[in-house]
Amino acid sequence: MATDRDRELEALRPQHEGRVMDLVEAAGVDVSQWAFRKDGSPVQNPAANPNYCYEWAFGGNGEPNLLCVWHRSMSVSDGLIVYEDCIRDLALKLDRVAIDRTNPAHVKSRARDQAKRARGFDSLLQRAFRRSEPVRIIVLQGEQRAAVEVGWETATVRFRRLDDVEWYVHAYDDDGSFRIVRGVPRADNAEATEADDEGTSPDVDENDSAPEPPPVPYLDQFSIPDAPERRENTGTSFNRSAEVRRATLARAAGVCEFCGCAGFKTASGGVYLETHHVVPLAEDGPDVEWNVVAICPNDHRRAHHGEDRDILFDSLTAALINRYPQAREILETLRTRRATQGVT
Ligand SMILES: [Zn+2]
Ligand SMILES: [Zn+2]
């Protein structure tokens, strides 16, 4: 028997072909950049700008948090309309598609793009949870891809609508699974007081503690404008996520993740280590935290050129598997492939 909530959920089903850009704008997120390409040149049809219109998450960082969610993923649970999922798992599935050399190039490249979108979705949700911020939802209706064919087919969206009601992240677990609830703020804000990784308004409530020292800026080769070693030795320039580098440097906290020595202090007062993709981007290594380490410049060169670079590779992969057990399978696949094909 359908309850009022069931009917409410049914009424949320989109019936019209809303354009993403219009809905994003209606949610209060700035869309002025949609009119431009990455190089700054104007695009003919901003609403179809591929840099934006396929994204799964918009806004955040001062703007409203906005996520695209399939209507069929929503359900009624305990009398509430909820969306429960683990987008981090989806990102890993997409990574697997992206590194599978039996897949055609366009499938791999689409999977890579989608994995990036999935991670954007996940980090926006995570931040909203930590900051107890509401989330707006663009509800999608159409052909959703099944998990088995992840990365193969682009899902076809038929209808979209912007939900007028705000949603709230009630749970975000360590493994990345979450629960967001329509229209009901999280009752208990206890978790929201945990330190925010981006240092916005820490809300110091322990009156006995001394003021926190300013955070040490952790720098890598890409933080220094004219550093000669801004590229890996692939000869090709790849896009690297600044967020991944930042998270990796924060994880290492100024200590080389291979040898354990402290990074040197820079003239500007930061601590310097270099970020390194353990499985190179050129070998389909994903640009994600579980494939990036922060190591001292000496070990970095050694990882690329040392006679013992295979030992460094094995040691760094083992450390990453240990730290990110959910990435074990994919890292082991990449490691085995490397061992059998040899390093170039
Ligand atoms: Zn080192
Ligand atoms: Zn490197």
Automatic annotation (TrEMBL):
Single annotated GO MF: nucleic acid binding
Record field: compositional bias (Acidic residues): 191-209
Renumbered residue ranges of the record's region Disordered? 188-239
What Gene3D superfamilies does this protein map onto?
1.10.30.50
- Which residue numbers delimit the HNH nuclease domain? 243-301
Report the SMART domains cross-referenced here: HNHc
Q: What is this protein called?
A: HNH nuclease domain protein
Q: Which organism is it from?
A: Thauera aromatica K172
